[in-house]
Amino acid sequence: MRLSRYFLPVLKETPSDAQIVSHQLMLRAGMIRQQAAGIYSWLPLGHKVLKKIEQIVREEQDRAGAVEMLMPTVQPADLWRESGRYDDYGDEMLRITDRHKRDMLYGPTNEEMITEIFRSYCKSYKDVPKLLYHIQWKFRDERRPRFGVMRGREFLMKDTYSFDIDEDSARKSYNRMFVAYLNTFSRLGLKAVPMKADTGPIGGDLSHEFIVLAETGESEVFCHADLVEMGAPGLDVDFEGDLQPLVDQRTALYAATEEMHDPAEFAKVSADRQLSARGIEVGHIFYFGTKYSEPMKALVQDRDGRPQPVHMGSYGVGVSRLLGAIIEAHHDEKGVIWPESVAPFGAGILNLRAGDDAADAACEDAYAKLSAGGLDPLYDDTSERPGGKFATADLIGLPYQIIIGPRGLKEGKVELKVRRTGETHELSPEDAINRLTEGAFLNG
Amino acid sequence: MRLSRYFLPVLKETPSDAQIVSHQLMLRAGMIRQQAAGIYSWLPLGHKVLKKIEQIVREEQDRAGAVEMLMPTVQPADLWRESGRYDDYGDEMLRITDRHKRDMLYGPTNEEMITEIFRSYCKSYKDVPKLLYHIQWKFRDERRPRFGVMRGREFLMKDTYSFDIDEDSARKSYNRMFVAYLNTFSRLGLKAVPMKADTGPIGGDLSHEFIVLAETGESEVFCHADLVEMGAPGLDVDFEGDLQPLVDQRTALYAATEEMHDPAEFAKVSADRQLSARGIEVGHIFYFGTKYSEPMKALVQDRDGRPQPVHMGSYGVGVSRLLGAIIEAHHDEKGVIWPESVAPFGAGILNLRAGDDAADAACEDAYAKLSAGGLDPLYDDTSERPGGKFATADLIGLPYQIIIGPRGLKEGKVELKVRRTGETHELSPEDAINRLTEGAFLNG
Fold it and tell me: Whole-model pTM?
């Protein structure tokens, strides 16, 4: 992408209304624009990262055996009257009346709708287990939206729903999501710790939150330090096999959010392994049994022909919120330092004197070769002065930057800068390009 | 995908409330489920095709130089008061009041919001031209939603917006989209004819609708038959070059929707080339100059430092509606016959006796090899009887079907069926697999 064609409205000043660093950086780097309280446009840079996060979340759902579909944003209120949640949900539900005076709402979550879909088609134990998910915009009319996309009103969520014949089988579905989440967050460059959680308004018996530790986290959390150091199970996990040992290995160690914290239990953790910190919730999984299937009559016949309410769970990942969480975990004073998996561009080319024949030719050559090499480079071909180009490249987190100017070219040199470490190398243009296309830095 | 794990609720009966074939087939093939009038869930099969359509639309926008972003679904009403459309839009606009009693709405289109974004950041002739697009759910509260996803209330639209310094430059942006649309619809297996169109409530001077001819089309259209036979410009078009000849070649021929029809002009077309038919609108492009930029004060300084309202256009593709249009154009009495580019699965494997060791083994082998070959097969591993499996495979449009049963296997044979032609071949399992992985049918 040529910057002159792109739409990257970076801000020089830190907006005064942004309290946390991810919100500040997303505004400064031209990733988002607020359209109303808690409602954002995703400008091209932010949108590009959001799509990469979404795709990783999708791939790990697919790998775990979940099937993608898509439910609409607007729902009929009657569904929520069936479950009894229409009145319970309170002011956070965005209620809508259509032209025919029917009560509708903007879905804050989809337990009711997916239960309605399931019960319409699935009647037998042969129809389960099922794991269905969608990635869709939700709306929760927060009283005080804040922290940018971390607590917005319109937000992108991946929600999965499991349907099983009994609790044993439901636990296997739960474990699939537990493991898939560990792998998902790991691919996103995040250390997310599963913590015993309160089930809140969704209800149910068994629930874990996945928490990223960060100073700006919204709540206090307590856990065994080993959980933070433990790696993810890895992408070669057999989801058809027994996942219980992988789950037990983690749930055996103390980890709880503030609401569930038990100081006496925590005290049993050896003192040097007791970790109390602030955390950001990026995922939440629930097993809630027949809480919805009973009132909504989602019944399946068991092997003896008796109708039984199906056992359900739901599993959420805050996709748009993850972008904020990733920036909280990966930045420095100059801007964002993306994990490779979600970097919006693989490299940058900075033309220090656009209009100079030699500089233009060298930049065009680098642009063509890095593009052909699959690096998806951003080429700063604008007439901005060098200092501004350096600042923008670091702010938006171009992981590798080839800096090309007439002076260096006279000596046959360009500069290759690594964003993460700040190190720079003086190289011939060819060497700089080859180092990138050959992936010499890719463990960076 | 194994069918036993998938969620494909096919219906045996044609639903009585579906009037047109695409709606009937989408319900019968388990692609969609209605959640309220004009509001649908996209079940896994429908969702998979929708995503493929969306991706083709995206690729052709990117190729034409448009930059993707994403605006939210919920918008503040004040934006629409600025343009004067808040009152004009009438009952079709879904109006919402949030918990703080602020007037909001579910966006039916995004001219106002993109103009607000543009004016916030772009102040100079150096900031244009810009072509920005997003693919987002919209809501229009139709009085009488019908024809399934063809005239729904919540629908997926790709909308692009162009910003230029003057009309000459704006026409170049218009031409980019004109050509991109021809290529887009061609890749989707559709012959879409650009027709002079009324500009309607969006306003403006220059506008074309892209119309797919189909018996079930919503409106009458009139055109020169050459337009239907003319191929798309092709993916190697140089979007930086002069596109006017490609546009002129088409606009020189008579083509108009009912509202714009001029019988006297049409009569000048030679009689054997006069085509009147019914059509489905799948795209609509507008140049509307300063209609929004003037009232909303989206001004850019020209080279002489004088502020000028920016010239704008907007360009829409009905992504979810396209799925209906494709089925209207590509089906037979048994079900859907997908264009290769959007087929949800590349092939099917039908196990005629699941549980039989030889059949299971041969199917598993085919499944592994077709998957490895990138065909993304659907494997019907259920205990349904053969007749039902044949019907489902044709209904959902599996383009190539390897049919495997114990009887054939005893003679070393399986059947390979081509959905489009109905032809079948008796082959060894190896030959059948190889014919597909080697793409022997891919011109099908």
Answer: 0.97
